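Hi again,

Forgot to attach this to my earlier email, sorry! This is the prediction with zinc ion bound. I've pasted everything inline since the attachment limit keeps bouncing my files.
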Amino acid sequence: MYDFIEFVCLFVYYEKIHMKKEDNQLMEKIISLCKRRGFVFPGSEIYGGLANSWDYGPLGVELKNNIKQLWWKHFVHQRDDMVGIDAALIMNPKVWEASGHVATFSDPLVECKKCHERFRADQIDISKPCQTCGGKEGFTKPKQFNLMLKTFLGPTEEKANTAYFRPEIAQAMFVDFKNVLETSRKRLPFGIASEGSAFRNEITPGNFIFRRREFNLMEFEYFVKENEWEKYFDYWLGKMKQWLRDIGVHDEKLHFVEVSAQDRAHYSKRTVDIEYDYPFGQKELYGLAYRTDFDLKNHFKEAPYTDAVTGEKLYPHVIEPTFGVDRSVLAVLCDAYTEEKDRVVLKLKPSLAPFKAAVFPLLKNKPELVAKAKEVYAYLRKECNVAFDDRGNIGKRYYSQDEIGTPYRITVDFDTLENNEVTVRDRDTTKQEKVKIGDLSSFIAGHIN
Ligand SMILES: [Zn+2]
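Structure tokens for the complex follow:
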């Protein structure tokens, strides 16, 4: 017998599932494809997993690396005003005192008095029964829970040895500011870029790779004079929009949300969240923040920059575009996933696809075709990541490559042995054309870039 409250809860739960059924199904299909084809696996799976930890598999690491490399090329290599660093994950704990993270980087935590499950107080209605056990005993008073992941350096677990895994990658770009300035000889405006892991002891992670305790960021700090911050804020917002188009995220799924003063991080005077329509709802993808001179002032007692013309010492102000790597992967996958009448196809931008092409011999039991196809494969893989497949029939191979987003399929047939021409089939249009083997690498490069 259900009591009334449980009945209401079940009803609400059923409604929630019912209303969101299509979206949930889409997310489940993407998660299942990711696992089946080696994009993303549950972490530590043979030991029963570890909640919300995920591993990138053989295809996932290619997709993720392609995004990171394209980002670096786009924002570092192709610009005169940007340099990169790769900093340590664990920094001197004084960094996190200066940055304000020790004092203020926390979420309000409440605990169910019945089942002791913990929730973020700002994410549940604490006047309602517990969503996990249905208990009506209520919740503990909210207490602030610091999100930094703690560890100990050295062989003793003492307070003096406490260190933190970095909760953001920005601080090294401030702490290293003078070293970068002196070695790179950049002048304002210029930026320092970085990419890597950050860690947050989230109370409620979830939604596949959307919110993990260990995640990847690409970010830069762009240093400007104070009176120019608005100009560069708008400039970088435009560049972020362009980048999203370049990686194939559709405009109509994006939302640019001005963050109100009370919701902004402690250091920011203006923040725009770039949100995306994931299957589980509209949530954050990227962020753009004006951090003022807050960080440089905290780390440097003396102004670290001298104007070359006026000789004035000053604290540069900072515009910070942040790009979540895992969230980029997730948005790109959600946008690319397409169901057609007789196939599932990942319509990834060719530049992001794990394999740029797949090479097939028309028939696997004709040694001369297999040998020629292997020759084409060996030649192409010097240029880009290419797959080889001689299993099953050609239809099955197409289907298999559609599902992982390979943009070009190259078939070696009996004509190839005569005239050195192969048939190239386009993933999206399924149109076929003949290309000379010698022209293949420029054909692929031309379509990818
Ligand atoms: Zn409970």
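The chain has 14 helices and 23 strands. The first helix runs from residue 4 to 19.

That should be everything now.

G.
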